[in-house]
Amino acid sequence: xxxxAQYYNTGDDGFEQQYGDKDEAQTFTASQNYSLTSMKxxxxxxxxxxxxxxxxxxxxxxxHPDVAxxxxxxxxxxxxxxxxxxxxxxxFFSAQAITTGTKYAIVISGGDDASNCVVWRKDGSSAxxxxxxxxxxxxxxxxxxTHSGEDFMFELxxxxxxxxxxDKVTIRRLVAAAANKIWYENV
Length: 187
Hints:
Elements: E1 3-8, E2 14-18, E3 23-29, E4 34-46, E5 51-59, E6 65-75, E7 86-98, E8 103-113, E9 116-123, E10 134-137, E11 145-147, E12 151-152, E13 154-158, E14 173-178, E15 181-186
Antiparallel strand pairs: 1-13, 2-9, 3-8, 3-10, 4-7, 4-9, 4-13, 5-6, 5-8, 8-9, 9-12, 10-11, 14-15
């Protein structure tokens, strides 16, 4: 059974077009460890954008997309043309390990121009997603600009979330052994 791991999926009141050298990204900091199996985006098309590329990226020290972890593509010409958008799901061939506290970026690009592009719905006026921001590039990802207070509509899905039993206590210990002795310290 699929479980919603992280998301921002309400309050959309605007959009950003992706085409040519104009790429858009949504960053997020992982709230816990999980295996990402699929992503959903509230998007639509204008004209015939062709192949839409999306990727999961690591981020640099500025929180901008840095290195692609995995990339996928789909036929953007099959998307709705309704400006309200549709939730498009993209499933990974194998689950992607997401690590607590690590900042990632979801990058979408596709289309040739403003008349043939993919459009990602966003909350541009009252975004409340505290773990990331909308980030944009107009030079094919060479330089990125963070748009604080704006977030794209997205959902990250996993097959399960690990939650330790509430009746168990986990203790972490640092252990060292030398000269036939063992030392340990709770950390």
